[in-house]
Design a protein that fits this description.
With 305 residues, the chain is mainly beta. The chain has one domain. The chain has two helices and 23 strands. The strands form four sheets. A ten-stranded antiparallel β-barrel has the order 2-9-10-11-12-16-17-21-22-23. Strands 1, 3, 8, 13, 14, 15, 18 and 19 form an eight-stranded mixed β-sheet that branches. Strands 7-4-20 form a three-stranded antiparallel β-sheet, with no helix packed on it. The longest helix is centred in the N-terminal third of the chain and has 17 residues, at 2-18. The chain starts with a helix and ends with a strand.
């Protein structure tokens, strides 16, 4: 009889834990105010001269960049919707999963630009008749790779590229003021109790990006003018290891929907001889959600072979 009662008690305890009564397994921060560091990529602006048909060209280049430390204020940023499965993965794909907190607006959101003064890349391009394709890989400051395609003629070129920046830990600043949902009891009550506003910051975050760009250049002899707009989606590390007031470690999530950024490069390049090319230009960062636009001065020198 005692054995049976014990089994029933354990079963009831398991059911109570399963339905989510109590503190969530994962902690999720609903951001009121946030500042996040993002990378400022180097746009691809083309070769800047005619490439011989049925040939392959390679380059190693180093970029020199200068930007201010002004933060970019962004409007209309939201915390993503949080479901019960975000707090307890046992509910993932379950019919019992439900929305705990709907999308909420972040009151104050800023991007901080992380642009190292130096960047480096390797590019390899292959041209058939007039069309060409290839890739680039490098650091700016995180590792990146891009696939390039386009058309190269006697006095102009144009094309596009797909770009992916890989995350590097330890180079991103994150600062947020947030609150948490403490208890999730039922679909009717949803988030029944919230904490007061808390503060979290770290300089050990990671960021990465994905985007699409196009480019066009017009050249006369060894001189070229280039323009390259690039639209990319930055993404910041979503989960962090923190300790609560009692010193207990926990995985803390920041589920923010990050807005797109438009990076527009305009500049000029000059081929000094058959192998060496120098470039100088400016990159403008803006977005429909930005209050202003932000400038970065760019210079580069490349060896082509």
């Amino acid at each position: 009889m005692k054995f049976r009662i014990c089994n029933i008690a354990l079963a009831m305890l398991f059911i109570v834990l399963l339905v989510g009564c109590g503190t969530p397994v994962y902690r999720q921060g609903i951001v009121n105010k946030g500042s996040f560091e993002i990378g400022v990529p180097e746009n691809f602006a083309g070769v800047g001269k005619a490439i011989p048909e049925n040939s392959t060209i390679n380059s190693f280049s180093v970029g020199f960049d200068y930007t201010t430390s002004a933060e970019m204020k962004v409007r209309g940023v939201k915390n993503s919707e949080l479901k019960l499965s975000d707090y307890d993965p046992l509910y993932g794909g379950s019919d019992n999963d439900f929305t705990v907190i709907k999308e909420t607006k972040v009151k104050s959101f800023k991007y901080k630009r992380n642009r190292f003064p130096l960047s480096a890349s390797y590019t390899r391009l292959t041209k058939k008749s007039s069309e060409f394709y290839g890739f680039s890989a490098g650091f700016d400051p995180e590792p990146f790779g891009r696939f390039i395609f386009g058309v190269n003629k006697e006095s102009f070129e144009f094309g596009g590229y797909v770009d992916l920046g890989l995350g590097v830990f330890g180079i991103g600043d994150v600062t947020v003021d947030y609150y948490e949902c403490l208890y999730v009891y039922s679909k009717e009550e949803r988030c029944s109790e919230r904490t007061k506003e808390r503060h979290f910051e770290t300089d050990d975050g990671a960021f990465w990006r994905a985007g699409l760009g196009v480019f066009a250049s017009y050249f006369v002899k060894n001189f070229a003018l280039s323009y390259s707009p690039y639209l990319y989606k930055p993404h910041l590390q979503e989960f962090f290891d923190i300790k609560d007031e009692d010193g207990i470690s926990a995985e803390f999530g920041i589920p923010v929907i990050y807005p797109w950024v438009l990076s527009q490069y305009a500049g000029a390049s000059l081929w000094l001889n058959e192998h060496w090319k120098v470039s100088l230009g400016v990159t403008v960062l803006n977005s429909l959600d930005f209050d202003d636009f932000f400038l970065t001065a760019n210079g580069s020198i490349g060896f082509w072979f």
